[in-house]
Design brief:
Layout: H1 2-24, H2 30-44, H3 53-61, H4 63-66, H5 68-76, H6 78-83, H7 85-113
Helix pairs in contact: 1-2, 1-3
Keywords: Cell membrane, Membrane, Transmembrane, Transmembrane helix
Pfam families: LrgA
Subcellular location: Cell membrane
C-alpha cells in the first residue's frame, strides 16, 4: 500500500506540472514543474518524505542505469555534437561562470544581511 501511495504522489506531481504547462503555455517542461512542486511540498513539510521513499529510494539506488539511454543517444549523434563543439563548450563555460557569479553574489548578500 505504501508503494502505491508513493507512486501516486509522484504521478500527481508530474501531472499537475504537465497540467500547468498546458494551461499557461509556459516554456518549461511539465516534468520540471512537477519536480519543483514535489521539492516545495517536501521542503515545506507538507509532504512527509516517508510518503515517497518507497518509490524514490529504489530509483535513486539504480539512477546510473537511467543515464544509459541518454549516453547512447549522445553517442548516436557524435557527428552533430562534433560540428557544434565550440558553441557547446562556450555555452558550458559561460553558464558555469554565470552560475558561479550568481551564487557568489547571493552569498555575499546573505552574509551582509545576517
Amino acid at each position: 500500500m505504501h508503494f502505491i501511495r508513493a507512486a501516486l504522489v509522484l504521478l500527481a506531481c508530474l501531472y499537475v506540472g504537465k497540467g500547468l504547462v498546458a494551461l499557461t503555455h509556459i516554456p518549461i517542461p511539465g516534468s520540471i514543474l512537477g519536480m519543483l512542486l514535489l521539492f516545495v511540498l517536501l521542503s515545506s513539510g507538507r509532504l512527509p518524505p516517508a510518503w515517497v521513499s518507497p518509490v524514490t529510494i529504489p530509483l535513486i539506488r539504480h539512477m546510473t542505469l537511467l543515464f544509459i539511454p541518454a549516453g547512447v543517444g549522445l553517442m548516436d549523434h557524435l557527428g552533430l555534437l562534433g560540428s557544434h563543439v565550440l558553441v557547446l563548450v562556450g555555452a558550458t563555460l559561460l553558464s558555469t561562470w554565470a552560475l558561479i557569479l550568481l551564487v557568489g553574489w547571493f552569498h555575499q548578500k546573505r552574509q551582509a544581511h545576517d
